[in-house]
Automatic annotation (TrEMBL):
GO terms for molecular function: metallopeptidase activity. Residues 211-411 form the Metalloprotease TldD/E C-terminal domain. PANTHER family: CONSERVED PROTEIN (PTHR43666:SF1), TLDD PROTEIN (PTHR43666). GO terms for biological process: proteolysis. Residues 428-465 are annotated as: Disordered. This is Peptidase U62.
Length: 479
């Protein structure tokens, strides 16, 4: 791939600022429904993206044809497009030469996982569900990239990932088992299947609660939705520059329990060690003990804000902007004496549940849509298990709620009553591998392989849950 990048740069010629990213992504997926594997697919693609700035104009293009003829055609089309575009006075220039801060996380067994390895995990999930109907997938992927520009920056990297996301179902109720990791050995289908089956059985005969405001314990899948929306709409440098973000650097906008970081190179990080502009990735704290500290910038939005790039550039980022794709909530203190509340409750959330006098345990959120980006008011549904908590104990399964809530308000000073260490990493649902689940609309021109978002969110206890109206069954239909 390094050779392809150098070939493209040589074809561009002198007098033009140019950058080239060559990426290879290999995805393999085993999908099952009705407790049988029905689809086993694999795909490997090499793509080349060129961006150049010539005569004050900027254009980009891409191809999957890596022959000399195909690369020459890419250069020709991109230069022709540049001549037709208006001047770009805000061009921020190319990334200067800089070494990588680390290589990121790589596991050979995950990258080379066989169909049998994925099928074994599906088999274990189905067996552990104890005869309940099951459906879901197990996927593995690896990505490698090479970047080079005419300013002398040249970097390479690779990453691997595995995820399993599945449900067990009985009449009227679903239970969820979900896990993502950089290591295949960490995904245990039997553990996930047992948890999903327990949640499904415990969700039978759910009752309807009246609309109102409830204290909640959000398990990791639900917290992941909060983080994805905060990242996309709140800490997005372009949104901030255009005054569409709630973020106010230096202000205490969150509870002091909240620290949000993006760290691709850390032990829990997934992704390439550099961004789409060749800037090396590094650990960035967006919120520290409740205080908003940073915004995600690429070179363009950083120049507009008088700041420095944070290494969050994305392909096609001119449209949507830069945002942290691997943001996580720093875990709270470990419980001195672990609380056991049965298999229905994530072990990481058990201590939080034990402290609730009356509230709800929420497994997952879905179909979330942003109503007001500035205040980040979101509407959506609960999913895959909701239970009433009374005096620190799970008492009754509850029908799904529709909610409307400002996410920053739910994590505002005084709103967070506790948080815990996560017991597992949580993959996103209904999206290509490595891509955050769509909260409303994806940035056009964004390459799924370029985005990485499998954060390990910690369960959170908050005293705010939005006003709700109506109730819904396990498939999201009005009850």
């Amino acid at each position: 791939m390094e050779d392809i990048a150098r070939r493209v740069l040589s074809m561009v010629g002198p007098g033009v600022e140019a950058e080239v990213f060559v990426g290879h992504t290999a995805l393999a997926l085993t999908r099952f429904a009705n407790s049988f594997i029905h689809q086993n697919v694999a795909d490997a693609t090499t793509s080349v993206r060129l961006r150049l700035h010539a005569d004050g104009r900027t254009a980009s293009g891409s191809t999957t044809v890596t022959t000399d003829e195909g690369l020459a055609g890419l250069v020709r089309r991109t230069r022709e497009a540049a001549r037709l575009l208006p001047p770009d006075p805000a061009w921020p220039g190319l990334a200067p030469p800089a070494p990588l801060a680390g290589e990121g996380n790589w596991d050979e067994a995950t990258a080379q996982a066989s169909p049998d390895a994925r099928a074994d995990r599906v088999h274990a999930f189905v067996d552990a569900a104890g005869g309940l109907e099951t459906a879901g997938y197990c996927r593995t992927m690896y990505a490698a990239g090479a970047f080079a520009n005419s300013a002398g920056q040249s970097v390479t990297g690779r990453t691997a990932e595995v995820a399993m996301d599945a449900i067990a179902r009985i009449e009227g109720a679903d239970g969820l088992g979900r896990l993502a990791s950089g290591r295949l050995s960490e995904v245990d289908g039997a553990v996930l299947g047992a948890r999903a089956a327990a949640k499904a059985r415990a969700s039978a005969d759910a009752v309807e609660l009246p609309p109102g405001r409830y204290e909640v314990v959000l398990e990791a899948p639900a917290v992941a939705d909060l983080l994805q929306n905060l990242a996309l709409y709140g800490f997005n440098g372009k949104a901030y520059n255009e005054r569409r973000s709630f973020a106010e650097p230096g202000a205490e906008q969150f509870d002091r329990a909240i620290t949000l970081v993006d760290d691709t190179l850390g032990a829990a990080g997934l992704g390439l060690p550099f961004d789409a502009e060749g800037t090396p990735k590094r650990r960035v704290a967006f919120v520290s003990s409740g205080v908003t500290e940073s915004l995600a910038h690429d070179r363009r939005t950083a120049a507009e804000a008088g700041a420095e790039t944070t290494g969050h550039a994305l392909p096609g980022g001119n449209t949507f902007g830069a945002f942290p794709a691997s943001m996580r909530l720093e875990p709270g203190p470990a419980s001195a004496s672990p609380t056991e509340l049965g298999v229905v409750v994530d072990p990481a959330a058990a201590a939080l549940v034990a402290g609730v006098e009356r509230g709800l345990l929420v497994t997952d959120l879905w179909y979330t849509r942003v109503l007001d980006p500035k205040s980040l008011v979101v509407t959506g549904l609960t999913r895959n298990g909701v239970w009433l908590i009374e005096n620190g104990e799970i008492t009754t399964p509850v029908r799904n709620f529709r909610f409307t809530q400002s996410y920053p308000q739910a994590l505002a000073p005084g709103a967070v009553l506790g948080w815990a260490r996560p017991s597992r990493r949580c993959p996103t649902v209904g999206a290509p591998p490595g891509v955050p689940r769509r909260p409303s609309a994806w940035p056009r021109g964004t390459s799924p392989a370029a985005l990485r978002a499998d954060p390990p969110p910690a369960p959170v206890r908050s005293k705010l849950l939005p006003a709700t109206w109506g109730s819904f069954d396990h498939r999201g239909r009005r009850a």
